[in-house]
Each structure stands twice: as C-alpha cells, then as structure tokens.
TrEMBL record:
<keyword id="KW-0548">Nucleotidyltransferase</keyword>
<protein>
    <submittedName>
        <fullName>Bifunctional adenosylcobinamide kinase/adenosylcobinamide-phosphate guanylyltransferase</fullName>
        <ecNumber>2.7.1.156</ecNumber>
        <ecNumber>2.7.7.62</ecNumber>
    </submittedName>
</protein>
<keyword id="KW-0418">Kinase</keyword>
<keyword id="KW-0808">Transferase</keyword>
Length: 174
C-alpha cells in the first residue's frame, strides 16, 4: 500500500491568489457530496464579513463544518466514500493552534498520519507564507516556520499539489 493519499490535493498560494476558488472547483466538479471544513474564527467584524461572504459564495449545495482546532477529529467524523471534503485553510488552523498554545508538531503529525486513511476526496487549502522577507518578530517567524513544516508534511502525503498565483494554477506534483 502506498503512503500517498491517491485522491488528495494540496492547494497553496498567497492571499487573494485564487486558491480557494480553484479548490472549490475541484470539489464541485467531482460530482460528490460537498463538505467544507472552515477553520477560521471571526476575531473581529471584518473577519465575520469574510466568513459570511465565503459561505454565501459557496451556496446551499455545500455542508459547512466549523472546526478551528480539532481538524483531525472533524475529518474523521465526516469522512466517507461518495464525499469530497475541502479544508480551508491550514494556516488559519495553525493560527488557532498557536493562539491556544497547542503542540503544533503533535497536531501536524496527527494530521499527516491521518491523511492516508481517508475515504473521501480531500482538498486542502493553505497560504504559502514563506516566500517573503524574514518576519521581524518571533511569533511571526514561528508561524512561518510551523507553516512551512506543515506544508511539507501534507505535500509529502498528497497525490497532487498546486501552487496558485494570479488565479493561475501551477501543478507541482501529481
């Protein structure tokens, strides 16, 4: 048995790159039952507006699950053949873990270990944050480093990896 998740895709890109739209199209074009795991939290009114807009844009054909911390638990709970699950996004999940002072390495390893078990088509979105300058403060540097390691772990398990820039996908793996 291969360690790659044959029906998994990681979609990376910068802010407003088109990665979420690309990922949503992968899920809806599958013809499977569409599930969305939202990891973001509404820390302020602006973020709540973003969350509301994303939900409205997806429409009623999606089942939305809000899960800011227990991503593996939620994936396990809704996994199943005939489903496509979109996780949007790993970097918001990482932010939540950091704010709650969770063990990032343990959580990332648990996610990577769980991925090959899924029965659903899985599409995971994340922000590529490692292409800029070295952040000026420790928390931002820790975040960038955690995100880079998390992306490497997920990309190693995924069958396909895309990088999105200016709405254009670059297939990096698969």
């Amino acid at each position: 048995m291969t360690d790659l998740l044959a029906n998994s895709t990681l979609v990376l890109g910068g802010a407003r790159s088109g990665k979420s739209r690309f990922a949503e199209n992968l899920v809806t074009s599958s013809g499977l039952e569409c599930h969305y795991i939202a990891t973001g939290r509404a820390w302020d009114d602006e973020m709540q507006t973003r969350i509301d807009q994303h939900r409205a844009d997806r429409g009623p054909s999606w089942t939305t699950h809000e899960e800011p911390l227990d991503l593996v638990g939620k994936l396990a709970a809704i996994d199943g053949a005939g489903r496509a699950i979109l996780v949007d996004c790993l970097t918001l999940w990482l932010t939540n873990l950091m704010m709650e002072e969770r063990d990032i390495a343990l959580q990332a390893a648990a996610l990577a270990a769980w991925l090959p078990q899924t029965k659903a088509k899985l599409v995971i979105v994340s922000n590529e944050v490692g292409l800029g300058i070295v952040p000026e403060n420790r928390m931002a540097r820790d975040f960038r480093d955690h995100a880079g390691r998390l992306h490497q772990m997920v990309a190693a398990k995924a069958a396909e990896v895309y990088f999105i820039a200016a709405g254009l996908p670059l297939k990096m793996k698969g």
